[in-house]
Design a protein that fits this description.
4 strands, mainly alpha
Length: 180
């Protein structure tokens, strides 16, 4: 599981998902770290962190992180603090790592759900809102294959699910049905 460094989330993962590996989002870690370094000195640690996260193996990443920490410890000791929390993705096959190392996919999905809910604006009940959110998630999961990319054949096609709102029917309810 990948998340930011929110203590409550980390505690919940340890308590309710025992045996699950937790990883700190590499993008959030990098952004938080670079915000502690002066603007004029950000380029060098950013390059070093990118090299650490681009490593092919966990051992190589740990070696690079150690070298980065030794280089920046005299002036910026926080550069390599807690970087080990970002290495859980190295226990998975290389093909899975790009999707596991950050929370970007989840954040994008949340933005898409929020965008679709804003369009409708009012729902007759909670179930209608949940159906819209579920349809958004289902559509996104159905379009994407195991690699996470949308096949070219589906990029220009019409959506699998059509959503009609009260503006379409004037009935004051949201109705969803499969497109034919």
């Amino acid at each position: 599981m990948t998340s930011d460094d929110h203590r409550g989330l980390v505690a919940a993962v340890k308590r309710h998902f025992q045996g699950t590996s937790w990883q700190r989002c590499q993008v959030h870690y990098t952004g938080g770290l670079l915000s502690m370094v002066g603007i004029t000195k950000r380029a060098a640690p950013a390059e070093g962190i990118r090299a650490v996260f681009a490593a092919q193996t966990g051992e190589e990443a740990r070696r690079l992180a150690g070298a980065l920490a030794d280089q920046w410890r005299p002036t910026h000791r926080q550069v390599a603090e807690h970087i080990e929390e970002c290495f859980a993705c190295y226990t998975f096959p290389p093909a899975h790592r790009p999707r596991l190392r950050t929370t970007n996919g989840l954040e994008r999905l949340n933005k898409e759900i929020k965008r679709r809910i804003r369009v409708v604006r009012s729902f007759p009940n909670r179930a209608a809102c949940l159906r819209l959110a579920t349809a958004s998630v289902g559509r996104r999961l159905c379009l994407r294959g195991p690699t996470g990319h949308v096949p070219n054949s589906q990029r220009t096609g019409s959506p699998d699910i059509a959503i009609w709102t009260s503006a379409s029917y004037g009935s004051g309810s949201a109705i969803m049905r499969p497109r034919r």
